[in-house]
Amino acid sequence: MIMKKIITTILIGGFTLALAACGNEPASTNPQQPSPQAQEHKATSPVATATSYKSLFQNTVFLGDSITEGLSFHDVLDEGNVLAGAGKTAEFALEDIDELTKRDPKHIFIQLGSDDILWPTDNPKEYSIKNYAKLIEMIKEKLPQAKITLLTVTPVTAEAEKQEPRYKNINDYNQGLKELADKEHIGFTDLSPIISNGTDLYDSDGIHFKPKFYARMLDQLKDQVN
């Protein structure tokens, strides 16, 4: 009988200690409290980053072609901050002036040219730059307080250039954009350094881009909208 009481006492004591240990469990292992790793993941999640970009560029409009359209397609920016579409050229962008004026942005980034250099005319660059200049003048007239910045045509992969040799004219076209920006006394930003370290940012066609390209692009431009 005495031995049975001793065993019972030991079992009760062990059970009590186990309960005490559970009650003193560190907060980091409590299911209701996320671990430091989980908190860090949440803080750097794509959703949180996208939200910060949308806030930073809330008074901005990106005017451009299908490359630019990727900003809203990948939900990096809201559609209200992107005025772009596939096949858009400097000439076609003239039709967007009324809509651009309606949005009344403080900052306008223009990224056109990837379709212009493919335009079936004797001198695509000259033709495009002429319309580009007209576009800039119309924006200055309608939105005199807006800050305008031209963005370069992004390079394509070697395979894409092989399939469409006219892409070899991208560097020459970008030089024309720089000269235009200088002449019009507006901003100019070269985007090529973003993709100078590899091709992992490209989509499968070697022309368009994955979401992380747009994050890097906005990182490069964010100081211009502060």
UniProtKB/TrEMBL annotation:
Residues 25-45 are annotated as: Disordered. This is Lysophospholipase. PROSITE patterns: PROKAR_LIPOPROTEIN. Gene3D superfamilies: SGNH hydrolase. Coiled coil: none annotated. The lineage of its organism: Bacteria, Bacillati, Bacillota, Bacilli, Bacillales. Residues 62-215 form the SGNH hydrolase-type esterase domain. InterPro entries: Ester_Hydrolysis_Enzymes (IPR051532), SGNH_hydro (IPR013830), SGNH_hydro_sf (IPR036514). It holds the Pfam family Lipase_GDSL_2. Residues 1-20 form the signal peptide. Residues 26-38 have a biased composition (Polar residues). SUPFAM superfamilies: SGNH hydrolase (SSF52266).
